[in-house]
Amino acid sequence: MENKRNVTEFILIGLTQNPQMQKMLFPVFLVLYMVTLVGNLLIVVAITTSRALNAPMYFFLTHLALIDTIYSSSSAPKLIVDSLHEKKIISFSGCMAQVYAEHIFGAAEIILLTVMAYDRYVAICKPLHYTAIMSHQVCGLLVGVAWAGGFLHATVQILFIVWLPFCGPNVIDHFMCDLYPLLKLVCMDTHTLGLFVAANSGFICLLTFLLLVVSYVVILCSLRTYSLEGRHKALSTCVAHITVVVLSFVPCMFVYLRPVTALPIDKAVAVFYTIVAPMLNPLIYTLRNADVNNAIRKLWRKKVTSNND
Asked: Which of 48, 65, 69, 270 has its CA 20 to 30 A from that of 276?
């Protein structure tokens, strides 16, 4: 198929076309984004500087916080800046880069959450073999698989869409570039293309989510043999992880497990998984984890002491 592309840039409609509403959204999203950056980077620094937090779970949590930071940064700054401008323009290459970033970090996070579920399964169901199974080499390999999986998924998606014929119009009814809004602008039949997107994104999310649900049913059933204190400690980490899994997978399945169509709620869902969810993840993990809370307090006291000196 010959690539016929007359479009060199796209015009984003944004969240709303009401100028007053746009100006009201600017401080809201700026605060949310700053909380996301501070919260996730604080977790990274606290864990990497604490000798007590050397378990595999915290190693994976560090990478999750890094992914959330970069993932949110792929779309939030553009949304914040565009809220101050009436006309919102993004170049074709910038649009493709945004799609690539969204999918590489989104897929890496999904795989990493699966890895973290496996870590909890081994810790709770096979505690005597945990150290041997989750060695430093295995943990490094699993994180590498998460990043490689994200890279592979995003590369397939971008190679699929970058060669499609965009002949015009070039107006995207969204605040960011994403697959379905872009497919609506392609000057060819997109039914088969939509099935490909659903297979490469939606069904992967669905199957992984079902796998995680089964794994946590097994984990929760095995907790019956634990003491009350051990059950409470295991549940605290599992509940936090299950919450993050739901926040990550439900929007993914909602967006990609359907034909190529745009719904009014899509923009709100996109705001949730690009800004709100990355902001909530560090709060969910730290509020229920005394070790991370202690590490953050020690880091804060060290900072205050150094400033006083």
From this structure: 48
